[in-house]
Design a protein that fits this description.
Strand content: under 5%
Order of helices and strands: HHHHH
Largest sheet: none
Number of strands: 0
Distance between the termini: 17 Å
Helix content: 40-55%
Structural class: mainly alpha
């Protein structure tokens, strides 16, 4: 799981200013100006309170799973794939990760202990990056807004639906 919320996805690099790349006579990959203005893609909508709570629950469970493995004295010295599988199984049992996501994640776990150490460290880093991104996005959208009474709370029963709604915000960026 390259990202704490989705498999094999990383936030894209920001669009860098500069001349558009040339395409040997083909169409330009950048949007053409209309009436002197370039149409910019719209940013994803901010996550709702419910989606943010689900994301925080997800990030906390994933973080504690990987940190438990990282604290093992044999970490980086012995093959801990069984512990990684057990951790992923617990995430599935706790309804934090869907079974197909766990299978996809486990299919890329290396067998070399040093590579496993690197892989777990990357999972922890991606988890922290995703958590910071979601919180910053939510905070910037709702800064100074009081909590809304009557909003539906995120629960374990709605966890996957809440995360699916959140991931819908970030599919294209």
């Amino acid at each position: 799981m390259a990202n704490a919320l989705a498999t094999d996805t990383m936030p894209p690099a920001p669009d860098m200013p500069g001349p558009p790349p040339t395409n040997a006579g083909g169409p330009s990959p950048r949007p053409q100006p209309q009436n002197g203005l370039v149409q910019q893609p719209q940013p994803p909508p901010a996550p709702t309170h419910q989606q943010t709570v689900a994301a925080l629950r997800h990030f906390d469970a994933v973080r504690s799973t990987w940190e438990k493995i990282a604290k093992n004295p044999e970490f980086g010295k012995s093959d801990l794939k069984k512990a990684i599988i057990d951790g992923a199984s617990k995430l599935v049992a706790d309804r934090i990760v869907k079974p197909d996501q766990a299978v996809t994640m486990l299919s890329v776990v290396p067998s070399n202990p040093f590579q496993q150490k690197k892989w777990v460290a990357e999972q922890i880093m991606h988890n922290q990056t995703a958590e910071t991104m979601v919180l910053d996005h939510h905070r910037s959208a709702f800064y100074g807004t009081p909590d809304q009474d009557g909003q539906q709370a995120s629960t374990m029963d709605t966890h996957h639906d809440d995360l699916a709604g959140l991931m819908g915000h970030y599919k294209n960026g």
